[in-house]
Amino acid sequence: MGDDDNGIDLGVDVHGAHEGPRKRAGRAPSGQRGKESGRHADLDPRKQLEAAEEALEEARAAVKENTDKYVRMAAEMDNMRRRHRQEQADQLQYANSELITKLLPVLDNFHRALDHAPEGVEGPTEQLRSGLLMVVKQFEDILESEGVRPIEAEGQFFDPSLHQAVTAEPSEEHEEGQVIAELQRGYTLHDRVLRPSLVKVARNS
Question: Helices marked H in 94-157 — which ranges?
Fold first, then answer.
């Protein structure tokens, strides 16, 4: 029985048996062409240079910002260390101020005792006066070694930071605002006033 009898056309090409469908060589799809052109655009040297310059400027700005922050932090730390050292120095320098302030009335009493002790009297009275003078001298030497100094008052012009005016009166021998008399001695500890001087001030106007 032949092939024609079965009504089947095998479609065999005598020039090339089993030849599949040929692939047509042609242009790439439009989508692929767009991607390739985009890649070529990305490789544009000018755009690459602009991008590099922009990145460089951003890096410079970040470095400057970080440097400024570091400088500010370093300055703040330095100020904190200076303040801490100053506070420690002040604590050491003025640590005894409260005790010294409490001792000043004792020194006042010694001075009052000396003011009422007669001078030039021989005997026990003179010996007592000499003893008081020696005690006062030792007392004042100790205070001086701690940085305590008496405030000058009598004959000075009134200074509200050093003197406290108790009373004022006319005086032909003193100018306006000049201290006539010291009623209670004042003292400083280093550069601070422990106690102002109580004074009488001339008021001629």
Answer: 97-116, 124-145
Are the C-beta atoms of residues 190 and 197 closer than 8 Å to each other?
no
Q: Do residues 40 and 48 lie in contact, with contact meaning Cβ atoms separated by under 8 Å?
A: no
Cβ atoms < 10 Å from Cβ of 158: 19
Please state at what angle helix 124-145 crosses helix 97-116, rounded to 10 degrees: 160
Q: How far apart are CA 204 and CA 173, in angstroms?
A: 10
Predicted confidence (pLDDT) per residue in 110-144, tens digit: 999 888 877 766 777 788 888 889 999 999 999 99
- 21 Cβ neighbours under 8 A, 6+ residues apart: none
The pTM assigned to this predicted structure is: 0.58
By the 8 A CB rule, do 188 and 194 touch?
yes
| Separation between Cα atoms, residue 149 and residue 3, nearest integer Å | 141
Which residues, 6+ apart, have CB-to-CB distance to 188 below 8 Å? 148, 149, 151, 162, 194
Beta strands at 163-169 and 192-195: parallel, antiparallel or unpaired: unpaired
- Chain segment 50-81, per-residue pLDDT in tens: 888 888 888 898 998 899 888 999 899 989 99
**Residue 15 clears pLDDT 70, i.e. is over it:** no
3-state secondary structure of 89: helix
Integer Cα distance of 105 and 121 in angstroms? 27
